[in-house]
From TrEMBL:
The lineage of its organism: Bacteria, Pseudomonadati, Pseudomonadota, Alphaproteobacteria, Hyphomicrobiales. GO terms for molecular function: DNA binding; DNA-binding transcription factor activity. Belongs to the LysR transcriptional regulatory family. Keywords: DNA-binding, Plasmid, Transcription, Transcription regulation. This is HTH-type transcriptional regulator TtuA. Signal peptide: none annotated. Transcriptional regulator of the ttuABCDE tartrate utilization operon. InterPro entries: LysR_HTH_N (IPR000847), LysR_subst-bd (IPR005119), WH-like_DNA-bd_sf (IPR036388), WH_DNA-bd_sf (IPR036390). GO terms for cellular component: protein-DNA complex. Residues 1-58 form the HTH lysR-type domain. It comes from Agrobacterium pusense. The keyword Transcription regulation applies. The keyword DNA-binding applies.
């Protein structure tokens, strides 16, 4: 049984006339008769009642027609989906993010992309920067939004966001009264930081800034997540240094101060393997470059992509 047999049967079932069906199919009537006989032989039952005056479907024929119409519709849908995948309009992307990325402008961007390309599914997964780098090398993700660049010859990157360093303090802390705070002002404080396992990239940058000011943070508590850091700060376990993306969050009990003496910024970088040219990823990459060309635009969903 081949698709041409099912197609011939479907047309004949609609026309109920061999001559008209043959004309619609653009084949000779004897050829149509052979196709139907071959089909009935394969199915093993009579699908049509034939007389010299009329053609009618048997009960088995009506059941068979309903089923093959479902199959044909599924095949047509498969063709459309395959074409959409090839054109980059449908697919699946594996996207990794850090705390700073997901607390910054990344949700706004992903929402804009999802609205523009609803048939491209994004599987989002949290990964620290160092884990993202390994996952990219092992091709376990398509793109990572990480801290800083990934200087590897097989990777391409694009600076997605750029934040300032800020101090987080419980509202009762004496330094809250200081409007112009510096990192050097924190030298004698207890610090709450993300742990070394999940926050290596950020800690390395922060420690370098502290060494330049002749001190090393006295770490009193560590947490694995941003929420853990915020909770420990509110509880009075110490102060913290974080990204200015924290201003996007609603968090009671914390005072935020920009660090005036830190000129360095904290970049969030989109990184992907340059050989990744799957159509769905190409659509994502082009949208990223076009919409986020001006990184700080207010509403990326207003762009045409």
């Amino acid at each position: 049984m081949e698709f041409r047999h099912m197609r011939a049967f479907t047309v004949l079932a609609q026309e109920l006339h061999f001559g008209k069906a043959a004309t619609t199919l653009r084949i000779a009537q004897p050829a149509l008769t052979r196709l139907i006989r071959q089909l009935e032989d394969d199915v093993g039952v009579l699908l049509l009642e034939r007389t010299t005056r009329r053609v009618e479907l048997t009960d088995a024929g009506r059941t068979f027609l309903a089923e093959i119409q479902l199959a044909q519709a599924h095949i047509e849908q498969s063709v459309v989906r395959a074409r959409h995948v090839a054109s980059g309009m449908r697919g699946e992307l594996r996207v990794a993010y850090t705390d700073f990325a997901i607390n910054g402008r990344l949700p706004q961007f992903l929402n804009a992309f999802g609205s523009r390309f609803p048939d491209i599914r994004m599987n989002l997964v949290y990964m620290p920067t160092t884990v993202q780098q390994l996952a990219l090398l092992e091709q376990k993700i398509d793109i990572g939004f990480m801290i800083g660049d990934f200087g590897h010859e097989t990777m391409e990157s694009y600076q997605f966001d750029d934040d300032r360093y800020v101090a987080l303090m419980p509202n009762s802390h004496p330094l809250c009264a200081t409007e112009r705070l510096t990192l050097a002002d924190l030298a004698r404080e207890d610090f709450v930081l993300g742990n070394a396992e999940n926050w290596t990239a950020f800690r390395n940058r922060l420690f370098a800034l502290c060494r330049a000011r002749n001190f090393f943070p006295r770490i009193s508590q560590e947490a694995s997540s941003s929420e853990g850091i915020f909770g420990l700060v509110v509880a009075g376990a110490g102060i913290s240094v974080y990204s200015s993306c924290v201003t996007n969050l609603q968090r009671k009990g914390i005072t935020i101060r920009m660090l005036e003496d830190v000129g360095a910024t904290l970049p969030v970088t989109a990184v992907w393997e340059r050989r990744n040219r799957s159509p769905g990823f190409e659509t994502f990459r082009r949208f990223l470059m076009a919409v986020w060309g001006q990184r700080f635009m207010v509403d990326p969903s207003s762009a045409n992509g």
